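Recap from last week: sequence in, structure out.
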Amino acid sequence: MHSQTAFTLVITGAPYSTQAPQTALAFAKAALAQGYSIDRVFLYGDGVHLSSALAAPPSDETNWPKAWAEFLQGNDIPAVACIASALRRGILNNEEQARYQRNASNIIEPFELLGLGEWVESIASTSKTLYFHGDH
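Predicted structure tokens:
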């Protein structure tokens, strides 16, 4: 077992326009299978689109937000979407919906909206941080 090694995964590429979420999920599953742990998943920039509960891809395509949510919940891994990135891209939780007087919230559980402080804290307590960027 490699329980002493924990990873923080930072995803900056959006689902459907980059491979970042798919590659990160494949890595996360393989890491857990090898006995490593995932400390947290952090979404930044366009990666926050992975936390949208409103994604509705065709039935023959993977629903990446749903696939990630099920993986995170099934493995009890915390997941954070950068609040500044999320708000710019229309991803809101109930509190931000009320604050900005919008018609709906649309963040999928277990993702939370938090600031960069969470990311810094995670890096400080994690053995390794891996970045999954978009390929533009």
